[in-house]
Design goal:
The structure holds three protein chains of three kinds.
Chain A (H helix, E strand, L loop, with lengths): L3 H33 L1 E4 L4 E5 L3 H8 L3 H31 L5 H9 L6 H12 L6 H8 L7 H4 L1 H26 L3 H9 L4 H28 L4 H6 L9 H11 L3 H26 L6
Antiparallel strand pairs in A: 1-2
Helix pairs in contact in A: 1-13, 2-13, 3-8, 3-10, 3-12, 8-10, 10-13, 12-13
Chain B lengths: L1 H17 L8 E7 L2 H17 L2 E7 L1 H13 L7 E4 L3 H7 L20 H6 L1 E2 L2 E2 L1 E14 H6 L10 H11 L7 E4 L9 H11 L16 H17 L9 H9 L3 E7 L2 H5 L10 E5 L12 E7 L7 H11 L2 H11 L10 H5 L1 H4 L4 H9 L24 H16 L5 H18 L4
Parallel strand pairs in B: 1-2, 1-3, 7-8
Antiparallel strand pairs in B: 3-10, 4-5, 6-8, 6-9, 6-10
Chain C lengths: L6 H28 L4 H4 L14 H9 L2 H32 L5 H10 L9 H11 L5 H26 L2 H9 L4 H30 L3 H4 L8 H6 L9 H29 L7
Helix pairs in contact in C: 1-12, 3-12, 4-7, 4-9, 7-9, 8-9, 9-12
Classes of the chains: A mainly alpha, B alpha/beta, C mainly alpha.
């Protein structure tokens, strides 16, 4: 159907977006690559020349590197699992007829509107503080010893905070998908006497496949870069140092741009590995 | 109002006659930290503007974000700020790099010699002052006189760590939610890192030997950390591994701490309106172990001018105003002597009005007993009490203090934490080319 | 929905959904409540839920200390303009990808998304140096461009999925009737895609509003948005929960209200082409 003319028109229309993004990607990328091969210490006289692969070797052999990669993957995976599972359940609940559906919906979506810094501050100070936090009061009320959330259960706490922020997004998309489900199909299944669990497994879940794929894809992109939540709550302590936080420490706290840039290159590589992996697993879902 | 107008008109007139090019609407931009004394200063800026015709824009940020922001700007010569609020750690390093305007031509009225020598020393490089202290602090013991009495003990003016541990155990009453002692355990070089480093000085430990070798494998460090952890596990609050200045402040104000060793500026908070224990707070010097060094630190928040700013003269004018004796008078007049910025000027401590403030003398004594140039028992190659004034320190100390915090939380042993600290430090020092 | 629903079932649904909804919303509610307390009440033990002396003191303090209007205006301008410019760039691109697909289309889409994976802190220095060179530091223009570029991949992708849902036959029919490319886009495509475009706008507005790394690091005074406003209230020395809560409420209220009024749009539009 596409004529030659419309093809070239199409290219022309795509050009601005592609050129802009190419610039946005290439300029910093090239600069990062350049810095990563140099000894660049801003507090020690700046750029001190070529250093080969030293920064790369140093970054990857540092005792913090592999734990950071692991932490990153754990956070991404846990948040994905939590938000998708709870999102499906929540979407199904919200799809039921009820009074005040609109209000409930906005209550559930609300966390998505809150800045990550704010939500991290609120959770850390007003909920997870082991003395004044609401959780501590709750624990004491039931006669238990308050938990020091951000030290004894740092990873679960961070994962919880991030999940709280992203659950609304997952719920929203899944809810839209559920609403488009053909009611007749379910009714027919009900007539046949299929139990609820079977209905869920064989009708609802397959229908949601595509939506779940999209939730996973979009969230992964944002979760790989989780930063504010860690900066505010633990500052990377207690095993919550992700790869992007490690880079932050190298660049801003240690003021070693070269080393940090090498870390940045590793982070890009990791992100692409994850992306390719994702595409292999879920990409097919996007095609139909 | 009319007075203000006349004043402004008069200033304008005098400026016009002095230099016609002087723009009335000059504005300087100041980056600062969101602590109480700075916020108060912002409130008085209108007066400065009225007096000089120089407008002031404030960029107020929390400490961590501020550091990140001003460091990026100064190292890249970004020129976003005319004045930056920096500390004793940054000033000598930046001064040495030539990034700050030397404050060597301040007016006679300003009386630069009145600045406490310890503060001036920590804010200078090669004898040149690069930032003027807005307020200074050391650390000291704040304790509950009522609880101390109930425990049947009496706080000496200069206690030892042994005494502190005993007193903490005696004051602790878990059922009443009273912890004998609250200390910083939070990761971060300016939080728990600063505390444990200052404490280690009194145990005879140091960060580096004279060949810049990390010293975490020494007995002194093991003693410091073991003592800290044992005492805090026995008498400290739950979750102390994440407590910093603020967390401990609110604990103390709620009456949940018997003792608290922290910044001297906290004294005005714990005796202020928000405190439920304001009437029963005593002060003492930070403890020692008899080795000749106490465990108090030295810090100042100071105003510096980035080199290359187009508004150097105006910036200097502001610094002279904000760190002057007159400014202290101004605050005292409006908000009482207890609320003036402390720890910067000798004359403040000679003022009879200020001597009546309960924590004034102890603050001065604490400041005077800390010497950045000789902070450790064994000789060390670095300047600084609770830090080493080298560019790599902030990064290293943050990671080291994270290992310590993990040990406080019981996720690893003290030995493991020290071994990791040793590795992290040596690794970073090697990367920085010290070896 | 033809399913018959007993009112008992409806009651159970309602109770369950409200319980969950309130639980999820509770941290925000708690923040709003705390903003009306004094600093002392904010850390009172046991915590006070409603029976405190409601005060506007915190809001007054915040208004006196900060130029809220300027922060708010900057947020609106930066989030708004970056979204609009992003749409102008993205609509044609998404259109051509959806209706004139080639073998490369999917690769280009994935590549676009992958540009979002570059960790921001890793390129802080390069971008900062670049901004100095171009004189863009602390300018709204600079931030608009950065926000637009950051969110562009998401915009393109969302629009692409919407456009793909529009049946090609309609366009073909229009073309048969002699509609030009311009007319096709303007009179047929756009009206059909309005819900999609609206929710794309909303989502990007929210993402740009909440972005806290670049907006903090590339601004000082003139272009500083609400994220910088928040940074001046978090963790000072002394008690700060109540004032922080007031500042937080002021920072999220505009977007919360916007979300409230547009939630139907958002729910209908946020499909990412997932419905099929």
């Amino acid at each position: 159907m596409a004529t030659k003319a419309s093809r070239s028109a199409a290219r022309l229309m795509m050009a601005p977006a592609v050129i802009l993004l190419l610039g946005w990607m290439l300029v910093p990328l090239i600069m990062t690559l350049w810095f990563s091969f140099r000894t660049y210490l801003p507090l020690r006289g700046g750029d001190q020349g070529w250093t080969g692969f030293d920064n790369y070797v140093r970054f990857v052999t540092s005792s913090s590197f592999w734990p950071a990669v692991q932490t990153t993957l754990i956070i991404v995976l846990s948040v994905l699992i939590i938000t998708v599972v709870l999102g499906v359940l929540l979407a199904m609940l919200l799809d039921q007829p009820m009074w005040g559906q609109g209000v409930v919906r906005i209550l559930v979506i609300a966390p998505f509107f809150v800045m990550p810094t704010v939500s991290a501050l609120v959770w850390k100070n007003m909920f997870m503080d082991p003395v004044n936090g609401l959780f501590a009061h709750l624990w004491r009320f039931f006669g238990a010893d308050p938990v020091s959330w951000l030290s004894d259960a740092a990873m679960p706490s961070v994962i919880m905070i991030v999940s709280w922020q992203w659950l609304p997004f997952a719920t929203l998309i899944l809810l839209t998908a559920i609403q488009s489900l053909d009611g007749e199909q379910l009714e027919a299944a009900e007539m046949d006497g299929a139990p609820k669990l079977k209905q869920f497994w064989f009708i609802i879940l397959p229908h949601l496949g595509r939506a779940i794929t999209i939730v996973i894809l979009i969230q992964t992109i944002f979760l790989l870069a989780v930063f504010a939540e860690i900066f505010v709550t633990t500052g990377g302590a207690f095993g919550t140092r992700t790869l992007s936080y490690l880079i932050f420490q190298r660049v801003l706290e240690s003021q070693n741009i070269g080393l940090g840039s090498a870390g940045g290159v590793y982070a890009i590589i990791l992100a692409n590995i994850v992306a390719i992996f994702l595409m292999r697993i879920v990409g097919k879902n996007l095609d139909n | 109002m009319s007075f203000k107008h006349t004043l402004r008109a008069a200033t304008a007139m005098s400026l016009i006659t002095a230099t016609s090019a002087f723009a009335q609407d000059t504005t300087i931009t100041i980056a600062t930290v969101n602590n109480g004394d700075m916020i108060r200063m912002q409130g008085y800026t209108d007066q400065f503007t009225a007096d000089t015709g120089i407008g002031v824009e404030w960029v107020t940020l929390e400490e961590n974000v501020l550091r990140q922001r001003v460091t990026t700007d100064i190292t890249t010569n970004g020129g976003q700020f005319d004045i930056m609020t920096i500390g004793m750690y940054e000033t000598p390093i930046w001064g040495a790099n030539g990034w700050l305007v030397a404050l060597d031509d301040l007016s006679a009225d300003y009386d630069v010699d009145d600045i406490l020598p310890a503060m001036a020393g920590g804010l200078s490089h090669d004898g040149t002052l690069y930032a003027a202290p807005f307020y200074g602090e050391s650390s000291m013991i704040m304790y509950r006189t009522d609880l101390m009495e109930a425990a049947g003990m009496e706080m000496p003016d200069a206690p030892t760590w042994e005494f502190i541990a005993d007193a903490a155990a005696a004051m602790t009453d878990r059922d009443a939610e009273i912890n004998g002692i609250c200390l910083r355990g939070k990761a971060g070089w300016g939080e728990g890192g600063a505390f444990i480093t200052a404490m280690s000085n009194s145990f005879g430990a140091r960060w580096f030997d004279e060949g810049w070798n990390a010293q975490f494998d020494t007995e002194q460090w093991a003693n410091t950390l073991n003592f800290f952890k044992t005492m805090m596990d026995a008498s400290g609050p739950a979750g102390y591994a994440t407590n910093g200045f603020n967390e401990n402040l609110s604990l103390f104000n709620q009456g949940k701490c018997g003792m608290w060793i922290d910044a001297t500026v906290a004294a005005s908070f714990v005796t202020g309106d928000d405190s439920t224990v304001a009437d029963s707070v005593g002060f003492a010097l930070a403890p020692d172990t008899g080795l000749g060094k106490r465990s108090n630190w030295l810090w100042a928040w100071a105003l510096g001018i980035p080199a290359g700013t187009a508004q150097e003269a105006e910036a200097k004018q502001f610094i002279e105003w904000a760190t002057s004796k007159d400014y202290i008078e101004l605050v005292a007049e409006n908000e009482g002597w207890a609320n003036v910025p402390p720890g910067a000027r000798t004359s403040l401590y000679e003022n009879p009005n200020y001597q009546e403030v309960p924590f004034a003398q102890m603050t001065l004594d604490s400041i005077l007993s800390a010497d950045p140039n000789d902070s450790t028992v064994d000789p060390s190659p670095y300047v600084g009490v609770q830090f080493a004034a080298i560019p790599e320190f902030a990064g290293i100390a943050t990671e080291v203090s994270q290992e310590f915090s993990a040990a406080y939380a019981g996720q690893q042993t003290v030995e493991e934490a020290l071994a990791k600290a040793q590795a992290i430090t040596d690794e970073a020092m090697e990367a920085a080319g010290y070896k | 929905m033809a399913r018959a629903v007993t009112s008992r079932r409806k009651l159970i649904n309602t109770t369950a959904a409200w319980a969950v909804g309130l639980l999820i919303f509770f941290p925000i509610l708690w923040t709003i409540l705390t903003s009306f307390k004094t600093e002392g009440q904010a850390i009172a033990s046991p915590p006070i839920f409603l029976g405190f002396d409601w005060t506007l003191e915190n809001y007054k303090t915040v208004m006196e200390r900060s130029n809220y209007a300027r922060f708010l205006w900057n947020s609106i301008i930066i989030a708004g303009l970056s979204t609009i410019i992003g749409l102008i760039v993205a609509v044609p691109a998404a259109w051509s990808m959806a209706f004139v697909p080639s073998r490369r289309t999917k690769d280009i889409l994935l590549w676009m998304l992958s540009t979002k994976m570059l960790p921001a802190v890793g390129v802080l220095y390069p971008i900062y140096l670049l901004f100095i060179k171009m004189g863009l530091l602390d300018s709204r223009a600079g931030l608009v461009v950065v926000m637009m570029l950051i969110n562009l991949p998401i915009i393109v992708w969302m629009l692409y999925t919407y456009f793909r849902e529009i049946p090609g036959e309609i366009l073909e029919a229009a073309r048969m009737d002699g509609a030009t490319l311009k007319e096709e886009v303007l009179y047929i495509l756009t009206p059909m895609a309005i819900p999609g475009i609206a929710s794309t706008m909303l989502l990007n507005f929210i993402l740009a509003w909440n972005e806290a790394f670049w907006t903090l690091n590339l601004t000082a005074v003139n272009a500083a948005p609400l994220t910088a406003f928040i940074a001046s209230y978090s963790s000072p020395e002394g008690l700060f929960f109540a004032k922080l809560s007031a500042a937080s409420t002021m920072a999220i209220a505009p977007i919360l209200i916007l979300g409230w009024f547009s939630q139907k749009q958002l729910v209908r539009g946020l499909t990412f082409g997932a419905v099929k």
